[in-house]
Amino acid sequence: MITTAKMDSLEYRLRRSDRRSVGISIERDGTVVVTAPHQAELVDIEKFVSEKKIWIYQKLHQKKSLNREKPKREFVNGQGFLYLGKSYRLKIVDDVEVKSGSSQKAAPLRLWHGYFELAESKKADARNHFVSWYRKQIRKQLKERIPRYDKRIGVTVKSIRILDLGHRWASCGRNGNISFNWRSVMAPAWVFDYILVHELIHLIERTHTARFWRVVARVMPDYEEHARWLNENGADLDL
Q: Where are the alpha helices (DSSP H) in 154-222?
């Protein structure tokens, strides 16, 4: 027998079967299916789904991203580009204008007075300049934000890498190493913080156990809202 159930904003189909444990699958159309033993209590099923909720959101995001066209951004005057959740329009400017800023060193791209300014001579390689700019901004943001959370969680970050991680926003390696997707800094600051907190906690809890989510909830009580935002808007964070 199949019934429809809902937990907060997450709707799923509950299927009873002869299997021994509860399992979750995501259908091709994005339907969430929870399969449980006939004798399993509803309260235990709901607890299992609650513990796996973020995993479900991540899988839904991946499926949605694969089936959705990426934003078609062109490197032309007036095109908007995201940084910490805000869109800033691009200006193609004369190289001399870029050099005349506060920095003595000429930059091919900068965020200046509410606009992204790209030197005319660098247009052909515009995407690479944006990626390079985002990589630098992530390091600046992490330098500021890690001290807000590391001691509360009880971890030490030894090294950070900025990579192209595809559909993953970050990943946690061994020995205090964390990798971030360069796209992550396009998200709003409060969502960026969630990505950071998520990976910091992975330094002490490698998998998404109940304990993992308890620590996340202690540090960031509204984390589910952040995860939903990524699920619904993550595909837009790209060039």
A: 189-202, 210-219
| Per-residue pLDDT tens digits for 51-108 | 888 888 888 877 766 556 666 789 999 999 999 999 999 999 987 666 655 555 668 9
Model confidence, pTM: 0.73
pLDDT, mean over the chain: 88
| Annotated domain spans of the chain | 2-51, 80-236
Closest by CA to 161, choosing from 141, 146, 181, is 181
pLDDT the model gives residue 167: 77
Q: Would you tell me which CATH number, out of the four given (3.30.70.100, 3.10.290.10, 3.90.1150.10, 3.30.2010.10), belongs to the domain 80-236?
A: 3.30.2010.10
Phi and psi at 22, nearest 5°, equal: -85, 140
What's the N-to-C CA distance of the chain in angstroms?
45
Q: How confident is the model at residue 183 (pLDDT cuts 50, 70, 90)?
A: very high
In the sheet with 23-26, reading across from the earlier edge strand, the strands are 2-7, 10-17, 32-37, 23-26
